[in-house]
Design a protein that fits this description.
It is a single chain. By secondary structure, the protein is of the alpha+beta class. The chain has a domain at 67-189: Jelly Rolls (Sandwich), CATH 2.60.120.600. 21% of the residues lie in helices and 29% in strands. The chain has helices at 2-27, 30-33, 53-62; strands at 35-37, 40-42, 72-77, 91-96, 101-109, 124-126, 138-143, 150-153, 161-169, 184-189. The strands form two sheets. The chain has a six-stranded antiparallel β-sheet with strand order 1-2-3-9-5-6. A four-stranded mixed β-sheet has the order 8-7-4-10, with no helix packed on it. The longest helix has 26 residues, at 2-27. The protein starts with a helix and ends with a strand.
Length: 191
Amino acid sequence: MGFLFRIFLIVVIAVGVGFGASYYALTDGRVIGSVSVGPWAAWPQIGQSYPDPYSRAYLAREGFLQLGESEGIQFVANEDSSGDPLDRACHYALEGSVPTADFWTLAATTPQGAIVSAAPETMALHSDRLALDRDGSVNVHVSPSLAPGNWLEIDGDGAFQLILTLYDAAVFSGGTTAISGLPSITRVDCP
C-alpha cells in the first residue's frame, strides 16, 4: 500500500510541475524566453525566422503584430522599478538612457493592448519630438494630470503597461545582447 501511495504521489508531483511550468511559460514566461532589464522585458527571438517555443507562445498569446529581427524590438513594462504594478491613477517619471536606435516610441496601453492615451493626437511619444537632457538621457512623465517637460497623458482606471519600441536598433544585432540601459520607472505620487 505504501509503495502505491508513493508512486501516486510521484505522478501527481510530476504532472503538477509539468503543467505548472507549461502554464507559466504560456502565460508570462519572462524568465524563460525574455531578456529583462529592470522593469522592462523584451522577447528578442520573436522577430527571427525560427523563434524558440517560449517566444512563439508569447507571440500567440499576445497576438500583436511584431517587428522583424532587423526592424526593431519592443520592451514592455507592467510594473515600476520597485516592482509595484503600474496604475493609471498614478504619476510616473521615466529617467535614464535609451539604447541606440534610429527612432523610438513610448506608448501606454492596457494589458490587452488598447491605447490609454487621453489625447488622440498624442497616442505615443516619439524620440524626434522629445526634449532630451544634456547627457542625452530622457526624462518623461506619464500621468493623468499635467506634468512638466515631456508628458504622456493617460486616461481611465486600472492597470496599464508601457511599451518602448526601438526601430532599427543596435540592440541584439550582430549576436550581441548588451543593453546600454533603459529608463527607470519611478512612482512620483498616487492618489
